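Section handout 9: paired folding examples.
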Amino acid sequence: MLIVFDLDGTLIDGYAGITDALGFAMERLGFAPLSEETVRGMVGEGLEKLLERAVGAAHAREGVRLFRERYAVVADEKTFLLPDVPEVVERLAHDGHLLAVASNKPERFSRRILAGKGVADRFFAVAGPDDATPPKPDPAMLLAIMRRAAAPPGRTVAVGDMEIDAETARAAGCRCVLVDGGSRSHEELAAAGADAHLARLGLLPGWIEQVDRGSLD
């Protein structure tokens, strides 16, 4: 099975770093910084969209530059693995599943964070948006990983913490699992139409086993 994880809110809690870097950019552009709670509700569609929402389209390009400048300094210190992550990725890899990450965070930051937290070697691919690849919910990132793994949609599961992850999975034709603990409430995720909605990531290996046995088909 190919299992493709989102990053922020699924594998890591990086909202403190994102809030810090966004506040840095906003202050230098003459805006008051936002609370972490507010920022949690704004993320998910890529950095450009985040800055458009925070400072407006006219300032977004410079805001992205300033955000990246600050985020490079604070990302490691202000990012933490979410509960169950080391154990879950270890178990899934041990069981022979192929693991990857597809995030709307720039790829270089995703790779750096995963390496710094000691789990990078469990993922055969890490993808992010770039000039040729649009952010989620466009399925381009996910489809590229599926092609690289030679994994059909029926043998691919996308795991995330937002409605956008379910939209992306549906666009790619694969299953989606949404997990509580990120930027959305339990009720919001329950209404997102995923194939499964789990209270915590630690329940994912058991769900994958059921899929492999065919009991959920």
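Moving on to protein 2 of 2.
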Amino acid sequence: MADETSLLLLKPDCIAKNLSGEVLHRLLAQGFRIRGIKMIQLTDELLKDHYSHIADKPFFPSVADFMKSKPVIALALAGDNVIAKVRDLLGPTDSKAAPKGTIRGDYGEDKMTNICHASDSPEAAVVELKRFFKDGEVFDL
């Protein structure tokens, strides 16, 4: 068993649908711990960095526009194997393929409006946490 910390972003559709509390409830009910949490408005610079793997694609401007449409809630969430477990709770990236009972299956709409982003590996989590949280904003709890 590995105690890990993952980055999660409660995306603009989660905020617009007022589902932040429900999503947090589902995550915390699994025994995960919040090590950091804040609401932020994403910028073009941050989005180009975060989505560098698709920043040159023709659909990137629509992704950036969506991610800037409302603030997001950034979470540093810790727990035993939290990265894999959170991804299981969320379901597949494409909400249309996500089974009912998963967060995306219950509340998401498609690949972009899918409620939440979560780190996909321990290596990605380290990079993403540094991208969204400054020194002193993630606590050892």
